[in-house]
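User: two proteins, same treatment. go.

Assistant:
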Amino acid sequence: MSKPEILKESAAAIKKYIKDHADLVLESREEWISALLEDHRKAVQGIGQSLKKSKEAEEKEILRVKALYQHDLSYGKIVCGVDEVGRGPLAGPIVAAAVILPMDDRFTEMILGIDDSKKISKKNREILAEMIKEKALSYSVYEMSNLDIDRLGISYCNHEVFRGAVRTLTVTPELVLSDGYKIKDYLGENIALVKGDTISASIACASIIAKVHRDRLMENYALYYPQYGFEHNAGYGSKDHLEALQEIGATPIHRISFLSNILK
């Protein structure tokens, strides 16, 4: 059915057509918006307004993400972004990811939706993580266990997962951007960016990969230790987690050094 023909149909039929033929409508979205807004029916005009808002939101998102890529591109070097997740939980590892993205001033490889991983829904994080892995020039994930944390301390492990993630990349970065603070004892060039996952594309991507990786680990641990709620608290001290610790005690994946004020 052509556009002139479908526009003669009811608002419900038009809405369904647009949903079922989204790619076709996208090719001439401006024309569709104009035609829908010019229709005398309020319901059809409303569909046009929705399309217009969707277009404006997409344009805003493109500008937001482009700024993240422009930041990394501005250094004129092979840039790697690193971020960690799991510094504060009572159980499980601390995990860092490092990501090197392809950079060009035409911005043809941008991944829309990247941001601080905590701002993104679980479903979208998982979709984005796969897109990042497909498009990255190189990425790596590095973790240190609860036993490492108890033996070496969280501060050392925090910096070591950063260093380890960078070490295991298949492409050598010329500059490492880290989220929040500089990497201790890292010998290469390193710049720390406060709230870096909202400034740098590569840090945002590292944030997403690290969180998806660790969340999946904790969901798997929940199968073995179902009483602790790891599938939803990721090892943090939620009410059900703390109650299980009091009633059952620690598991082999708990950080004993974190439990001195909880298990007395």
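Protein 2:
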Amino acid sequence: MRIALFSLFTIFFMSVTPALSATCGNGPGGYEAWKQSFIANSSSYGLKERVVKKALQGLTYNKKVVRLDRNQKSFKLSFKQFYAKRVNNAMIKRGQKLGKTYARIFNGIERKYGVPAPVILAIWGLETNYGSFSGNMSVLRSLATLAYDCRRSKFFTNELVNALMIVQRRDMTPAEMKGAWAGEIGQTQFLASSYMKYAVDWDRNGKRDLVRSIPDVLASTANYLQKHGWRRGQPWGPGTANYRVLKKWNKASVYVQTISVMAEKIGS
């Protein structure tokens, strides 16, 4: 998932001023100096230095993350190849079963956001196989490495700042913040910036928890789609307005087509 944030809140807290940071790098050599510079300039991002220092303490440069960032192949597949690799009948049946298990939650979510259960289930299934595996890598270590790396430094510095905001407001601890290699968090793999803007506390326990709380996961996913223009009661196949909304979730055409087809099958 890749998103753009427009609110004054996020513009203030996510803006990256190159002058405030040490130079990016393409290897581990300058990483520690970059990290210390980032910590020293915490307040310029709206962060508390003590929070950032504690959260980033001991985090080393991750060569594996950089290698994965340079070698993304899944979206080079055709739709047929991608669908066959990522989806099977068991996933569809499990999605249908989960739709029944959480029917009351899905009904409430659709009433509020207008997004039907099959679409949310398709995203949930495709992202993490319904929460079976959300990733086990340190989100903060991954994001710090990618923020330092020159290839997409500005983008990932924004994500690092937002991840630290999540820690600062006590939604999650650094230790709890485990995810995929690019820093995606939770059962539908929100980027930290999306987490900050779209995550909701559906179970009303005082925290927006997209790792452990299934109600929060499902409602937050629907909130994201609704805020990007989802049209209540309308179809979501290719050529529709809702299909264009799904493209806001993921820019890869094979991914969006897979969500659309999965949702149709789950809902049939």
